[in-house]
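Example 462.
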Amino acid sequence: MVGEDTIAAVATAVAPAQGSVAIVRISGPEAEAIGRRLFRAPGRQTWDSHRVLYGHVEHPESGERIDEALLLLMRAPRSFTGEDVVELHCHGGLICVQRVLELVLAAGARPAGPGEFSQRAVLHGRMDLTRAEAVGQLVAARSRRAAQLAMAGLEGGLQRRIDAQRARLLDQLAELEARVDFEEDLPPFDGPGCVAALRQVQQALRAMAEEAGRAERYREGLTVAIVGRPNVGKSSLLNALARQERAIVTDLPGTTRDLVESELVLEGVPLTLLDTAGIRATSDPVERLGIARSHAALASADVVVLLYDLLAGWTPEDQALLQQLPEGVVPLVVGNKCDALAATGTSPALSEAAEIGPVQTDVRISALSGAGRDAFVAALLQRCGAGDGAGLQMALNRRQADLASRAAAALDGALEAAAQQLAWDFWTIDLRAALALLSELTGDDLSEAVLERVFSRFCIGK
Ligand SMILES: Nc1nc2c(ncn2[C@@H]2O[C@H](COP(=O)(O)OP(=O)(O)OP(=O)(O)O)[C@@H](O)[C@H]2O)c(=O)[nH]1
Ligand SMILES: [Mg+2]
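Predicted structure in complex with guanosine-5'-triphosphate:
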């Protein structure tokens, strides 16, 4: 699919009345010719590479001025794609940039497919596949932490780590292959050393795949459902975390009837918080519909916060709710209204709780005063599996993690062959399979299918 044709797309976000500047990017052998056909640069400006020209985009036939713009020419190979690239920096919004793009297409470029600029960059050796994917992650990042992880990937952190493992496997493979042909001429084979090396690589790959799960939380975020009896303060908690009055709060039980959703970023982790209707037996048909939605939210959330009222203590209704939770859901149990508890001087009503059933309160908070907020956020992130992400070095995505795990699994075969003391050929088959998977990960061995899969997930213009 990568040919010698010239592609073009709007590289910046397109939104009505927004973005004062938009960039139309053109890449391919015709890029400069198309630029020259449409762009008039007054005075003695010269078309040098990596120089900015000032001028106007004009209709090549009618001469109508479409926009005042800057043109940046980057000749091959010193460009993002490694091809001749022209960027037209036009005015933003909807109309100007679309008209400029139309002219560019009419002048001979074809619309770029999703991720096609990055794909060309990889094919021309301007960057490896993991970096190209990091570009996509950087653009899609919804939190500071996700952006930092993507930047680490962009700087080649992932490729270096994979390369290190690949080098170790290649060493072993070379050693084994040499034995297949020249066993007699070589010193005795260090079997235990080889097995140890393979095990280490396997562990490193598994650790990376596991890290990927955590990194994903930073990228994609999690859904957290706050559930509990009516009036325990669920909506108050949502408002406190969102730092705005998203949900209606009253002292009437049954206030929230519908799901209230709030997107927020806690400690760099993007979360979708769901405030739900208080769960209780009721004959009110509207409230019942709301409660049905609460149950649906419970079932689909990644993390469930079960909120109860410390003043009322852990009641049989709370206990019933806990028991109704879908199998496998372990809620974060949070006691609310600790301010009121302190005001009344009552000791935590957990002695009653002990009689009803053993429930461990994970955190005590006051949605009203903000007490316990930090402890709650820390406990929540811990539960999300994002508690100690500071040590993450890179952002493996799902595709990469899958390949790393498969490579680790392939090494099981080689280790098995070693344990059974099979002939060298048996070791090398699996070793080669593992290496092929790692190559697919960094894109050193590019098959058309991998490329298509990776790049079709990009947005157009990158
Ligand atoms: N003292 C005190 N009162 C609180 C606290 N949190 C909530 N409240 C009060 O408790 C009442 C119920 O709060 P909501 O946030 O509406 O409770 P809810 O769980 O959303 O209730 P439903 O929507 O009916 O299920 C309101 O009067 C709040 O002001 C708290 O931390 N301390
Ligand atoms: Mg509510």
